[in-house]
Amino acid sequence: MTELIQLLWSGVLNGLCYALIGLSLVLIFKTARILNFAAGTMAGFTGWFAWWWATKQGIPFLLAILVAIIMVAVATLLIERLTIRPLINENFLSIVTITLGLEFLIANISIRMFGGRAESFRIPGDIQFKNFEIGGVRFNWWHIVILIATFVILAIVGYIVNRTELGLAMRAFAEDKDAARLMGIKESTVSQWTWTLSVTVGGLTGILFAPVLFLQQDYMNIPFIKGFVAAILGGFTSLSGGVLGGLLLGELEALAVKYAPRQAAAALPVIIVFFILLIRPRGLFTRAKAHERV
Amino acid sequence: MSKLTISNLKVGYKKNQVIHGLNLHVNSGERVALLGANGAGKSTVLKTISGLLTPTEGTIQFNDEEIGGVSPAGIVNHGIVHVPEGRRVFPALNVEDNLKIANYRQGPDRLAQGLEAAYSTFPILEERRKQPAGLLSGGQQQMLSLARAIIARPKFLLIDEMSLGLAPLLVKEFYQTLDSLFSSEVSLLLVEQNAGMALAHCSRFYVIRNGDLVLEGNSEEYRDDPTKLQPAYLGR
Amino acid sequence: MTMAYNEQTSSSSASAMQRAGIPVPGYIKRNQILGAFFFALTFLVIPQFDQYTTVIGFILVFAAVGGSLVIAFGAAGQFTLGHSIFLGAGAFLSANIANDSYGWGRGLELEIPIALAVCFVLGLIVGLPSLRVNELYLALATFAIAYVGQQVLYEWKQFTAGGSGKPAGDLTLFGWEIGRGVPYIRLSLIILLIIFWICGNILDGKTGRSMNALRTSETAARSAGINVAWLKILAFGISGAITGLAGVLYIHNLRYSGPENFNVHLSILLILTLIIGGRHRLAGAIAGAIFVKFLPELIRDVQDYEGIIYGGSLILLTLFSPRGLIGLIESFFQLLGKLVAQTPLTKFLPKDTKANISPADEVTSPLQSATLAGLVTSKKRGHLTVQDARVIFGGVRAVDGVSFEVESGKITGVIGSNGAGKTTLFNAITGHAKNAEGHFILDGKEVSNKPIHVRSLAGLGRTFQNLNLHGDIRVLDHALIGLDRNMGYGRISEAFRLPHVVKNERLAYEQSAELLDHMELLEYWDEKVDDLPYGLQKRVDVTRGLATNPSILLLDEPAAGLPTAEALEMMKHVIEYAEHIGCGVIVIEHNVELVADVCERVIVMDAGKILADGTAESVMKNEDVIAAYLGT
After folding, report:
1. Is B129 exposed, middle or buried (0-12, 13-18, 19+ CB in 10 A)?
2. Set of chain C residues whose Cβ sits within 8 Å of the Cβ of A37
């Protein structure tokens, strides 16, 4: 029994990571209708950046995180303005290509700035190494921090999207671009804040999971892929769907590792994707229409 | 003041001219109808005024200020509100959110007043305020659309095909509501296929055919027998 | 519905094709000769660059994959991030076949065919998601496939030896050992040349045209009789097969390979090759391959900044040149051309053939030409029966029990106010309305519930209210696409450009030119449709409808937005041609003047039903009709 709970808990932990990445991907997809292929790299960069401030620049831990996040957010505003906004009316291929280019660019900058070797992210009090037990099940303090932080992030994003005027503008824009513009909503405003919010969420995820995944080159790339599977599970247009999808994927993976043959466990995320896209592609880019407007 | 003057307006998609040099004007507080058959270019004119499209030539002046080519957000700032064809409510957002959107960047006080006005005019919207707008019937969506216009406090209102797909009785009600809702200082440019309704509520009209202005006149002369417009609509 | 083709070519000394200066389809094109020249040059010169053979080997592999992607991505528009899986499959197939220790010990003579066959089938499977999802979602699906492909390779130990990877076998061909370095490169060059030749043939033939058609407008492609679903999968199959072949070359260059080589990153590089190089031309594959593989060599000193230079170039290229490197190069030459045109040097340059349409020697109507004669049947066709057509969507009865019958070869008009259900009726007849009910019979054949392209092949032609033209494709090709259904050659013959392929192409080109001439579009044959003014676009729309050689042609507001005089002129040509080939016409129009002039019979629709049906005069006087139109 305890083994099962231990297993499920590890699934939750991974699931939270996927959920956050999924959230950041859906945020951009909803409004801009594209996939940010650089999301994993950007998240990883932010984690490294925080480490750099804390370790190489000797700044206190929490401050380092703050500085890293703020600088990344500002950088995103710049990137959006310079490389995304000019192409906002082109087809998706151009912007996807830009994100691919950003992926290469940021990955390289990351290596140059932080060195190519693996590092460990030291947390004050070394709490990522401190465990405690409840009823035979082992928990780790840092994981609890992750759990709490994730809830906070989700709550904040939820608040922004559902209760602020900006969030309302984003949601309206995602549904009907022209109608939203007629209400006085500017495309540039929506674009820049969506990207900033998305990359910030990704960045926080990169920082949170750095002690868990260990700082290495491209350490957020596989979570990125899993995150986008999570987003697909959620239909790719539902924010909460993306989050739930992430948790679901985390659990399925944990169970598969234990009970399924190894090949299947490894292929699981993609089997899911294939399945969903072929059988039930809800929230499609192009819907199968009963009546085609010709 | 809410005067609109359009001179020699030409609008085209890529290399195609859809509007070929249009002249029209709406005086402050006037109600003018823009009539014509489907595909004549009426919606294109409204979209160009509201900024969704850019003129290739010609001028659009609002209170003597040039607004041709200004972005939709800028047009809204001028107090020109476009109620688009087909309602275009945000289906997944609830009714109240749809209304809030119309108050974009105008502050909570205006919102409170606006919501009150909207709900007292259309009580059913208050009943359904937390429901997704996509679940409303066609008529209710049109109410929502008009309510948004109320909240936006326009100086100049562009309405595109309000009657499309609605029962005639409902349409009559909407037109009456229009009269009571908006003070005589708000100008109105109304696009309609239903000539009779439009003429009953507008003092002047224009008829467009294939992107050209083919007739303009006073509604009085045609109210009793809109079929006299047929030649202008159909070209024979 | 295949027609027997008249084999005579025009006897008049100034055929439409000649007058317009349209190049006659042949076996070899000028570009191919140029390309072969460069290949030969490289072949000869390569021993000088001995130390670069590894890099050049990679460039050739990437160029090969790029070439295959020009078909799948450039032509068919399938954005795929999963091609690493084919490269990997080909590589490991080669390793397993060529290595003595694994029990086979054979050379390229077995590696290549097996890689081609296996990867073709694999491609068909990988292409399946393209039937359900488009564009971005397809990218996601293929992205996921690349990821799992790599996982599968890791796990499949017998095939790939897992993490430790497998060595490449000896490079042999029918027992002949081929050395590494220069001999390998020469072999790769030859194989690449053959690949490019085949890809070029496919792109120039009906398959290439059909793929470009489905990329630019699936709706219109289906209406032209193209089996879009099969063609999409085929694109993956062909591209996968060629990439598998490239994989064989790849592992022989690498000499050893593990699953870690075939990851998502590689997939991205592969498609980037085309995005950078330009995806519509084979030359783009080479340009992109050089950029992607050679650039790191050039910046070897700054290898540490590879990602920044790569990524940065990619971003700059996208922001400033959407058509990729080839686009940049083309623009450069265009600019050069403009500059030169302003100098006296123009005397020495060949004239622009477009501008010189010499008038025909005799004033003959194109309709009298013998080439077009091949499309004519002796009897009239297009007898259409519509029984109780119904279309309901969103609770609205768009078409509410419509029945009528149209005799062969007749011209019928359909009018009605906005929302009356006219276009929806057309959609029901042609198959664009998926939940339509009712029976539709054309010339005795039942076409209800058949897919769009099948109905088109049965003789139902149509145009669209929203044009749905094939944006970046030439006017001439719009006509050719319609005629493609009659091409008397198979896809394998096409790949090798056999003599009967050339013959069929020539005939189709002649016929297209004649048709364009009749519709007064001949001088625009080389223009991309997007660049034309609206009036001409409408004409192209109608022309491609005619090109499909329909039994009955459904025209949806062909005159919308046109001045009445121009519209009447166009309709005159259409009717003339229709009468010539014996097909019937049904036309939806708002321009009542036009309808009255052109149609013997007019059907009026309102709220999904038929309101009136008779001659134009009688219908126009009908009181109900007037009321419906003015909404009173």
Report:
1. middle
2. 268
